[in-house]
Amino acid sequence: MRVLVTGGAGYIGSHACKELARQGHDVIVFDNLSTGHHELVKWGAFAHGDILDLAALRRVMRRERVEGVIHFAAKSQVGESVRDPGLYVRNNVGGTLNILEAMRDEGVPRLVVSGTCAVYGQPERVPITEDAPLAPVSPYGATKLFMERMLADFAAAHGIASVVLRYFNAAGADPEGESGEWHDPETHLIPRALMAVAGTAPALELFGSDYPTPDGTCIRDYIHVRDLARAHVAALEHLERGGASTTLNLGTGTGFSVLDIIRGVEEVTGRPVPRRIAPRRAGDPPVLVADAARAKTLLGWEARCSTLPEMIASAWSWLNRN
Q1: CB of 288 closer than 8 Å to CB of 167
Q2: Which tens digit of pLDDT belongs to each residue from 109-151?
Q3: Is 211 an annotated catalytic residue?
Q4: Which of 64, 224, 239, 285 is most buried, judging by how many CB atoms fall within 10 Å of its CB?
Q5: Pick the catalytic residue: 88, 120, 140, 167?
Q6: C-alpha to C-alpha distance for 54 and 19, rounded to whole angstroms
Q7: pTM value?
Q8: Do residues 250 and 295 touch, judged by C-beta distance below 8 A?
Q9: From residue 212, how far is each of 142, 195, 285 by CA, in Å?
Q10: In Å, what is the CA distance from 61 to each residue of 47, 66, 103, 206, 309?
């Protein structure tokens, strides 16, 4: 397929581009480079553009004869969404609407969307299945849920098939060292801990130590970015085969606390992680762990390289290399 990857110059998007190319697809990256990096566009053509520009989306879909879209170009920081919800509505909802309308107008039939476990809010039970109640507690999660509802409406009205991949915490870097996390500022736990070890960032802040968990810190399901990339390509190929629209969780089914991550970083690097306790962040549920059985059944997908040492070691290698 000829695949347009919005946000393809970013962390997860660039890994997906590499996997698409590995599987023989033609890649066109569409990115405004506000958070992505041109240096990570290595596996296809590049079109500089913004998903808020409907005309630009239509032009690139028509010019490149696009047959499928993978959509990563969303704002994704919970804390920032609490401070500036309008930014998230404008980009995540408005930008996705533009993508869908451009696909409708240019006859592009299939879409894979980078979703989030944030749509579940404070889950009643873990591991979380796709049928769990949807009650996001942050503006970020609310915008991603509205995106999902738009997909259903466009499928009914215009026949655009889609797969939403609700994944949990992306981690790690490309094992060949060709891509990795490159955020400014960096907000994710594992790279922040590694940067604190390396002395390139201040002491790691632990946002809350009084959660109702065994050690008082939040528990999350971490999944290697390469496994995420494989899932996005598998979802697109599912649609190409005529598969039905669906929503799938991606995760390992195993949760690690913030303190577990810190211990893992210390084991991989052989150095202590400088850290301090900070107040809780708004919108952070205590525990988020995935039940990804449906993805295994439908796509034949499961996490292959998402052990904690693998994720931390690949991220450490990327940090030292760059």
Answers
A1: no
A2: 999 999 999 999 989 899 999 999 999 989 999 999 999 999 9
A3: no
A4: 224
A5: 140
A6: 27
A7: 0.96
A8: yes
A9: 24, 28, 10
A10: 11, 5, 8, 43, 40
